[in-house]
Design goal:
The structure holds two protein chains of two kinds. Chain A is an alpha+beta fold. Chain A has helices at 3-26, 52-59, and strands at residues 34-36, 39-41, 71-76, 89-95, 102-108, 123-125, 137-142, 149-152, 160-166, 184-190. A six-stranded antiparallel beta sheet of chain A has the order 1-2-3-9-5-6, with no helix packed on it. A four-stranded mixed beta sheet of chain A has the order 8-7-4-10, with no helix packed on it. Chain B is an alpha+beta fold. In chain B, the strands form two sheets. Chain B has a five-stranded antiparallel beta sheet. The radius of gyration of chain B is 33 Å and the shape is elongated. Classes of the chains: A alpha+beta, B alpha+beta.
């Protein structure tokens, strides 16, 4: 009669342990994330002292994250009001970027893959955008063409924005950034 | 002696008949013991789950077969970094890579000796990173650190570094930039930012121009 309790303990331990580990590293982990406004980054993902969860996440796929001294990647899955980014809406990305040698801003599907777009324009670099008088960025995200800097969105569904800052001094202390130092994401309207 | 022992001394014939209240009390007592046992077993299961969780997360990098260093292990054997944006036929693409950058990789295995990496800078931003097997960046440098247009460093294990330090001339400073890799196998990644669409071919040439071969 002692076999049954032992089997219960082992089944519970192995089942719960393996399942929780699988879910903990299936996506970018909560551990080590830095949230600044709508943007999330994992400053240690490219550092030597990477946390075990991020390391396990990276080991499960062909990931080559930016090194800590090389740059910083920030991901936004929601706008500044906290609403999930939806391709049925139009968004304005405006404001400034932290000091960096260069940056790129791109649209990706919720898993980080390139989206299905009608034209080949899924991102902008700092050298490609048309700037206003004050030098700030102003990019409109919409499914239909817009004047100025236009990033097309997929026909529908959720999406995310990825901002990559290259050769930036902030990569080691991204968590201390103020939201106004990063581009604002404002919803214009929805279909 | 306790009251229980006293009750046992009474012959069965003289014992008062069990009432419904006694039966219910016994049932509740057995239920309580059962629940306590179940709770303790669940607690033990949860403790074991915690151990299994931690061990699994820590072991994933060592057991990984689909990480970048394993998948691209055959690239760079000819002494030059090979382009992975797009990847060579039959190899998977980088997940969540930047469409505005090109990357070329050089695989290394330090069991044969330290690896020397030499990159020439150009007009586009270049970054070199050392990715250890099983995920994680051991070292990163950009072309801002280049001396007269050349970035050069040697990747080695801790033991190889100790050996090199022991062989250094006393009183002389080595000009070699030495990078310790925490794993024997890994990847050197050269990433060049494609600032405009027409820069792509120049970026690819810059990335694939990175040389990596045995240091000695």
């Amino acid at each position: 009669m002692r076999v049954l309790p032992l089997a219960y303990v082992i089944a519970l331990g192995a089942g719960l342990g393996l399942t929780s580990a699988r879910y903990a590293v299936a996506e970018r982990p909560w551990v080590g994330r830095a949230q600044v406004g709508a943007w999330t980054s994992w400053p240690n993902s490219g550092a030597r002292d990477i946390d075990p969860y991020m390391r396990a996440y990276l080991a499960r796929g062909v990931h080559l994250p930016l090194g800590a001294g090389e740059g910083l990647e920030l991901i936004a899955g929601q706008d500044d009001a906290g609403q999930a980014l939806d391709a049925r809406c139009r968004y304005l990305v405006s404001g400034a970027t932290p000091p960096a040698r260069g940056w790129s801003l791109g649209v990706a599907d919720p898993r980080g893959r390139p989206p299905q777009l009608p034209i080949e324009r899924e991102s902008f670099t700092d050298a490609e955008i048309v700037r206003g008088e004050r030098g700030g960025m102003r990019i409109v995200l919409a499914t239909t063409p817009e004047t100025g800097n236009w990033l097309p969105l997929p026909a529908g569904g959720r999406f995310q924005l990825r901002l990559r800052l290259y050769d930036t001094p902030i990569s080691s202390h991204a968590g201390e950034l103020r939201p106004d130092t990063l581009p604002r994401i404002t919803r214009i309207d929805c279909r | 002696m306790s009251a229980i022992d006293d009750s046992r001394a009474v012959p069965a014939a003289k014992r008062p008949p069990a009432t419904r209240a006694d039966a219910s009390r016994r049932f509740l007592s057995r239920l309580g013991r059962g629940l306590l046992r179940f709770a303790l077993l669940t607690l033990a299961g949860l403790f074991l789950a915690g151990i299994v969780h931690i061990v699994t997360v820590l072991r994933i990098p060592a057991l990984a077969t689909h990480d970048a260093a394993t998948v691209y292990a055959a690239l760079g054997a000819n002494g030059r970094a090979e382009l992975v944006t797009p990847p060579p036929a039959g190899l998977p693409a980088i997940l969540d890579g930047d469409p505005n950058s090109v990357a070329a990789v050089c695989s290394y295995d330090l069991s044969a000796g330290p690896l020397r990496v030499i990159a020439h800078t150009g007009s586009l931003p270049l970054g070199l990173t050392v990715h250890r097997r099983g995920g994680g960046v051991a070292y990163a440098i950009t072309d801002r650190a280049a001396i007269r247009g050349v970035l050069e460093f040697v990747v080695m294990t801790r033991e190889q570094l100790d050996e090199r330090l022991a062989n250094d001339e006393e009183g002389e400073t080595s000009r070699e930039l030495r990078v310790v890799s925490p794993s024997l196998q890994g990847l050197v990644v050269a990433r060049v930012v494609v600032r405009r669409a027409f820069d792509r071919s120049e970026a690819e040439a810059q990335a694939t121009g990175v040389a990596c071969g045995l240091a000695d």
